[in-house]
């Protein structure tokens, strides 16, 4: 079993000065995270701290989506992103192919989680671009018995409720399919 | 009536978007799976698209993936000073 001290060294080796031996670095991470006991806990805690930093980096880049949000809210989103990223990484360790630095591979999960939360927040807080008077023009029975739209429905009432260009739902579907 | 230059340009952009790239393009899932490799080759000054064919075309057409690529690239660059 890898000692705690050896696992702590992972933190040093994952510092901004990158390991020359990419594969060796990756194998150390995979071995530590695949193990058991205190060594695994130390490695997971080290990785979590790195993922939290990556999540904060991503949320900061997208700070326009958090205008007016409390600092605690953003911190909480960063923590959730790091938690879910760590969980995804532990579940997908066998998909890491040592073709990049382990930390680069791991960071993308934190960035994805933070991005998903940002898009979800933007979606939840987006306004429906429909005028109040438009509601009164919506047909009571827009579809016929076969599920076809009533041809008598006024054209302006047939438009989608939400402007697709303002809706990040496409990305959200993609996010779900990737996780 | 002859369409204006702006109108022709907008039509061309729309058509290009509808038709997609002429070459291969990865999916969003493939993009995410290869994002780390692509970013490191890119930061190393390699022809990253040679290592992940179709990635560049996808990033040009998918804003969500392009944002994640930009973020990962900037994060790694900030840690390494642009070297990998």
Question: Layout of SSEs?
Answer:
The complex is a heterodimer of chains A (179) and B (84).
Chain A: H1 4-13, H2 22-34, H3 37-61, H4 71-91, H5 102-125, H6 132-137, H7 155-158, H8 169-178
Chain B: H1 5-19, H2 28-43, H3 48-51, H4 55-61, H5 63-80
Helix pairs in contact in B: 2-5, 4-5
Outline the structure in words.
By secondary structure, chain A is mainly α. Chain A has one domain. Helix content of chain A is 63%, strand content 0%. Chain A contains 8 helices and no strands. Chain A is elongated and about 65 Å long. The mean pLDDT of chain B is 87. Chain B is 71% helix and 0% strand. Chain B is elongated. Chain B has a domain of 57 residues. Chain B is mostly helical and 84 residues long.
- Main beta sheet strand tally, sense and closure of chain B: none
Summarize the amount of helix of chain A as a percent range. Answer: 55-70%
N/C terminus separation of chain B: 55 Å
* Shape estimate of chain B: elongated
> Quick one: how many beta strands of chain A?
0
H-E string of chain B: HHHHH
Strand content of chain B: under 5%
Mean pLDDT of chain B: 87
Topology, number of strands of chain B? 0
Q: How far apart are the termini of chain A?
A: 31 Å
Structural class of chain A: mainly alpha
The biggest chain-chain interface is: A-B, 25 and 23 residues
- Taken in chain order, the helices and strands of chain A follow as HHHHHHHH
The whole-angstrom Rg of chain B is 16 Å
